[in-house]
Amino acid sequence: MSRFTLHDVREQTYKPRDSWWTVLLVDPLAARLVRFTANRTSITPNQLTIAALVLGGGAAGCFAMAEPVWLVAGALLFHLSFVLDCMDGKIARLKGNGSVFGSWLDYVFDRLRVLVCAVALMGGQFAATGDQIFVWFAMAIVFTDMFRYLNSPQMAKVRRSMRRNLTRAIREADAVEAAVGGGRSERAASAMAAGDRLSRSLSADQQLDEVVELRPRAAEDVVRPEADSAPAAVVPGPRATVPVVDEAALAAAEAEDEADGDEADGAETGKEAPTAGRRAREVQATELQRRFHTYFPWYIRFRDALRARRIRPHLVSGIEFQMGTFIVAPLAGAVTGSPWVMLAAIAVSGALMLTFELLLIYKLWLSTREYTRVLAGIQAAVPQAAPEGRPADAAEEAGEVPATAARPAAGAASGSEPVTIAERNGVASRG
């Protein structure tokens, strides 16, 4: 049997960023339990998931008693249940014995634990007081938890869709650029530079301290081609010594691609040029976050201070909401002897979580606006891709440009608008 050290557990099972509750109050205990479990037992991740649900059921039974001592016992059992819930994933990563079914089991059992504990906690108080407000709070707890765990995958789906469309547009623009051999006009070169510069012309202090706007004549940052010269290249300006990349967004994008089986497109070997997939992820981590960083210049410093301690900036997520509802609130109610203090703690936890969810939605909305701009900038290079003096049909027949890029969509000759890359990707090129 393999012998795992505490260092092995931390290196192989700790997430790069996690909730502050997990980092500060769970991982120190869970890591030691994982080391013991991995070295001394043959317990599987799925067995730990089931045990976590059983402890959660025990917590619910204590909550239903509605007495202060039982509320304290329920809070402790719920915390231990969450520790086991964290251990199943750590064991799976450490021993490599996770499964797709285990992932489903973990998600469904987590939701069942919240449902059962919410009904028990509020149902016990309703039985003791007869006040219907506890019934409404039970429904509010379940709704708030489900909103978080429904909203998160939908936001990830939107980000993946944007990234795939950017990848497609970059591939098509690259194909056209290679075909015409550098015959792009200044406007087309500027548009490609705007869409593909990946913030390399901005230093960190510029990104943080200035309202950054694209300036068409930024000669120090963007080298434009003369006629019949090589394609435009984006080079760092005098202050651009460090690329400004939202590494958290980049890592999240790569993790989503890996989960979807798309990592091959973004993989790089040796010193090969970045692929379209990798460049799309970098655009998503830089250009699409630019407006948010402009509005909130302090965010990167705040985020980096938390990341140094492995804490994610989403300070009140679903985890903190559950802990506030099923640990902090019962303890507060037990100590004060007042169910209204318990309700206040639950209300604050829910309000804070919804506030952070709205901030994430706002950030996503800003990135979708930048996405439309960037995608339109990339596709602007394609309609002008045929060499000057040669019609698109002639360039296509000569094999210099792909047919899809050189020829307008059907119906264009009859007066209707041609289909652009942005429109084909489902994005209107509106400002």
UniProtKB/TrEMBL annotation:
Primary enzyme class: transferase
The UniProt record lists the keyword Membrane: yes
Upper classification of the organism: Bacteria, Bacillati, Actinomycetota, Actinomycetes, Streptosporangiales
Compositionally biased spans, kind Acidic residues: 254-266
Transmembrane feature ranges: 48-66, 133-150, 315-334, 340-362
Record Pfam families: CDP-OH_P_transf
Record InterPro entries: CDP-OH_P_trans, CDP-OH_PTrfase_TM_dom, CDP_ALCOHOL_P_TRANSF_CS
Protein name, as recorded: CDP-alcohol phosphatidyltransferase family protein
